[in-house]
Amino acid sequence: MTLFKTSKLSMAGFSFPAMPLAAFLQSKYILLMPLYAITMGLDAKAIAGIFFTTKMFDVVTDPIFGVVSDRYRTPWGRRRPWLVVGTLILMLAIYMLFIPTGKVGANYLFGWLIVVYVGWTLTTVSHTAWALELSPDYDQRTQITGWLQVAAMIGMMLVALTPAVLEQIGSPTHAEKVAAVGWMLIILLPVAVFTCLRSLAEPEAPPPAHIGFRRALAIVAGNWALLRLLAANAAITAAYAVVQALFVFFVTSTLLLGERTGFILFFLMVGGMLFIPVWVKLAQHFTKHATMQLAVLYGMAVPALLFFLPPERLWLTALAFLFVGAITSAHELLPRTMMADVCDQDQAESGTERMGLYYSLLQLSSKLAAGFMASAIYMGLSWLGFDAKTGGQNSQAMIDNVRYLIVFTPIAAYVLVVLLMWKYPIDRERQKELRRVIDERAGN
After folding, report:
1. Is the Cβ–Cβ distance between 138 and 341 less than 8 Å?
2. What is the pLDDT of residues 60-100, one digit of tens each?
3. What residue ranges define each of the domains in the chain, with the CATH number in brackets?
4. Would you state the pLDDT for residue 206?
5. 136-178: per-residue pLDDT in tens?
6. What would the 3-class secondary structure string for the chain be?
7. First to last CA, the chain
8. Residue 390 has pLDDT above 60, yes or no
9. What pLDDT is stored for residue 284 in this prediction?
10. Once rounded to an integer, what is the mean pLDDT over residues 223-239?
11. Which pLDDT does position 249 carry in this prediction?
12. Residue 95: CB atoms within 10 Å
C-alpha cells in the first residue's frame, strides 16, 4: 500500500475550497434563515416548510450525481469538471439569496434554494470524494480530512468575523451583515477552486467494474457500517443545526447581545479550530468511532454552560461559546474520514470504487437532518408564539423556551450517536484487511 505524499503548501491549496463551502453552510442557518424571517418578514412556519421541502430535492439529485461522478471520466478527470460547474452555479445562487433586491417572497426563496443546493452538491461531493481518494491509509485519511476541516473552520470564522468587523465600525442591519458575507463567498469561491485545481492532480482511478443495478443497490443497503455511520452523522448534524438555527435568537432575545452576534459567533468557530488537532490525535491513538463517542460525550456536558449563562455578559458568553464550539470540528472531520473506510468495504465486495456515491449519501444524511431539524425548530418557535421581529420583547417564558431548546435538544441527539458507535465494525485492523483484498484484486 503506497502512502500519499505531498507538501504542506500543496495540501493547503487543495483544501482551500472547503473554506468558502463551509462558510456558506454556516451562514445558511445562522444568517440566511433569520434574514428572511426578520428583514423579509416571512412567517417562521413558511421558512421552515421551504427549507425542509427543498431538501427533498436532494434525495434524488445527490445519489444520482454521486453515481455519475464515479462512473464517467473526462480527459480532465472525474472530479475537476464538476467542481468548476458547481462553483459557477453556487456563485449565482449565493448572490440571489444573500443580496436580494427589495422585498422578496416565499417563491423566490424556494427557487433559489433549489439552485444553491445543486451547486452545493456538485462542489462538495466532487471536492471531498477527491480528497478521500488521495490515500488508502486509515490514519492518513484522518490527516487529510483534518486539512479540509482546518480550511472549513477558517471559513466559518470568516462568517463570524465579517459581521463582527461591521459591528465595530458601525451599526449594520442584519441584511447588511448577510450581504457582506454573500460578497465574501462570491469572491472566495473562484479563487479557492482555481488554487485547488493548480495544487494537486487527481489520483488514477481503476476502471469501474460492471455490476448490475440490483446487486449494486443490495451491497449499499446491506452495508451495516454505512447505515450506522449515516444515522450517527444525521444525529450529529441535527444537534449542530439546532445551535445554528437558534443562535441569533438565543443571543438576541435570551442574552440581549444582538449587536454583538458576529463577535460571539467568532468565538464559537475559534473553539472548533483549536480542537481540530485534538480530534485528529485521538482518532490516530484510539479509533475514529471511539473518538466520535468521546466528542459527543463532551458535547453532552458543555451545554450546561449555556443553560446557566446570564444575559448581557459579553465576555462570559464568548468564553462559553468557545467551549461549546470545540465539538463543531468533530462534526465534519470524523464522519468524512470514516466514510472513506466504509467505501473500502464496498469496494472489497463490489469490485468497484464508488467514493462519490458514498460521500453523496453522507452529505444527503447531513442535508436531510439539518433541514428537518432547522425546520422543526422554526415550526416549534412559531407554534410556541415566538416573534422573531420583536427580539428581547418576547415573554420571559418564550425566552426560556429558546434556552431549553438550544441546550437539551443536542444532548438527546448525542446519546443516539454513542449507541450507534458502540462496537462499530470497521476499526484500524479491519480497514487494513479490506485494503489487502482490494490490492490483491488489483494485482498490487
Report:
1. yes
2. 788 888 888 888 888 888 899 999 999 999 999 999 999 99
3. 9-201+213-442 (1.20.1250.20)
4. 64
5. 999 999 999 999 999 999 998 898 889 888 888 888 888 999 9
6. CCCCCCCHHHHHHHHCCHHHHHHHHHHHHHHHHHHHHHHCCCCHHHHHHHHHHHHHHHHHHHHHHHHHHHHCCECCECCHHHHHHHHHHHHHHHHHHHCCCCCCCHHHHHHHHHHHHHHHHHHHHHHHHHHHCCCCCHHHHHHHHHHHHHHHHHHHHHHHHHHHHHHHHCCCCHHHHHHHHHHHHHHHHHHHHHHHHHHCCCCCCCCCCCCCHHHHHHHHHCCHHHHHHHHHHHHHHHHHHHHHHHHHHHHHHHCCCHHHHHHHHHHHHHHHHHHHHHHHHHHHHCCHHHHHHHHHHHHHHCHHHHHCCCCCCHHHHHHHHHHHHHHHHHHHHHHHHHHHHHHHHHHHHHCCCCHHHHHHHHHHHHHHHHHHHHHHHHHHHHHHCCCCCCHHHCCHHHHHHHHHHHHHHHHHHHHHHHHHCCCCCCCHHHHHHHHHHHHHHHCC
7. 8
8. no
9. 94
10. 95
11. 86
12. 16
Write out the three cell numbers for 233: 452523522
Here the cell at position 365 is 444524511
The answer to whether 325 touches 269, Cβ cutoff 8 Å, is: yes
